[in-house]
Design brief:
Strand order of the largest sheet: 6-7-8-4-9-10
CATH architecture of the largest domain: 3-Layer(aba) Sandwich
CATH class of the largest domain: Alpha Beta
GO molecular function: ATP binding; ATP hydrolysis activity
Keywords: ATP-binding, Nucleotide-binding, Transport
CATH superfamily of the largest domain: P-loop containing nucleotide triphosphate hydrolases
Helix content: 25-40%
Bound molecules: adenosine-5'-triphosphate
Oligomer: single chain
Order of helices and strands: EEEEHEEHHHEHEHEEHEEEEHE
Number of helices: 8
Protein name: ABC transporter ATP-binding protein
Largest sheet: 6 strands, mixed
Structural class: alpha/beta
Pfam families: ABC_tran
């Protein structure tokens, strides 16, 4: 599949005078597992709620699966931040509820997952552990057989083992169905294991977006004698610059290889890349080619 599942152009959402998302332009290709990363208040939940049609944009354009998003679409599964389940309903009642609401509901998939997870169908959701509730919420979203699955910090409240199990279940589902997924998280190490596409949001703005492999191949850490980043030359975007009196450490984006003897050049991992874009200096200074 080559089409985009989410396309936004200058998408903006304001709550009164507070801007939650500003001028957001992204394209998410189909079949990807997208990591949506950013600090608290960056606008991640706002973007996900716009994509699933729970919020209306203040300005800009947004297309999801080729159409305007609408809340309750059978083609989009959404697991909100607090893994919402109904405390008073049993696991079984959740499945019955899901079946009634969703025309494409896959009851066999739902029951197999509940069984594999060892959840008691007669137990009320309010009595489940945080990890079990997250798994139940994921089961409900998966059994809809959505084309696009949106997960808002699904593992935030889980212990490391439950996180691993949750992500494992997610990976199995994606491998079977080829569903596109957008998942927000603060935990880059978790995203590193499952995501192949990245969106970094900070202070309501998109800082960087792209294929993880391509981003890792084009970002480098340069360490050497103190330098004015402006002296680096054209075509190199200084994402983060740190200096001591005598030394500079720069994270630089460059599609061409950097072989400057003045620097040691190392690759960076996804966590360093995300942190560089989230840092204050990550204003993304681009050193353009001089005319
Ligand atoms: N209903 C609302 N009314 C007013 N302001 C809001 C509302 N929802 C979110 N905001 C504000 O919009 C901004 C973005 O919030 P959002 O929840 O999208 O961030 P987030 O990246 O998901 O944060 P977190 O990681 O803490 O969940 C924040 O400044 C937040 O205070």
């Amino acid at each position: 599949m080559s089409e985009n599942v989410v396309v936004t152009h200058a998408l903006t959402k304001r709550y009164g005078r507070r801007t939650a998302l500003s001028d957001c332009t992204v394209q998410v290709p189909a079949g990807r597992v997208v990591g949506l990363v950013g600090p608290n208040g960056a606008g991640k939940s706002t973007l996900l709620q716009l994509v699933c049609g729970l919020l209306e944009p203040t300005a800009g354009r947004l297309e999801v699966l080729g159409e305007r998003p609408r809340s309750g679409s059978a083609r989009v599964g959404f697991v909100a931040q607090d893994t919402p389940v109904y405390a008073g309903l049993t696991v079984e009642e959740h499945l019955a509820f899901g079946a009634r609401l969703n025309p494409s509901w896959d009851d066999a998939v739902a029951r197999r997952r509940i069984d594999d997870l060892g959840l008691d169908p007669t137990q009320r959701a309010g009595r489940l552990s945080g990890g079990q509730r997250a798994q139940l919420a994921l089961t409900l979203a998966i059994a809809k057989r959505p084309d696009l699955l949106l997960l808002d910090e699904p593992v935030a409240a889980l212990d490391p083992l439950a996180r691993r199990e949750f992500l494992q279940a997610l990976m199995e589902f994606i491998a079977d169905e080829g569903t596109s997924v957008v998942m927000s998280s603060h935990l880059v190490t978790d995203l590193e294991r499952v995501c192949d596409f990245l969106i970094v949001l900070s202070r309501s703005k998109v800082k960087v977006t792209g294929e993880v492999e391509e981003l890792l191949a084009t970002h480098h850490r340069l360490t050497g004698a103190r330098i004015d980043p402006a002296a680096l030359g054209p075509g190199r975007q200084v994402v983060q610059a740190r200096h001591t009196d005598v030394q500079s450490s720069l994270v630089v984006r460059s599609s061409a290889p950097i072989d400057d003897p003045a620097f040691r050049v190392d690759g960076i991992d996804l966590e360093d890349l995300v942190l560089a874009y989230m840092s204050e200096a990550g204003a993304g200074r681009v050193l353009e080619r001089q005319p």
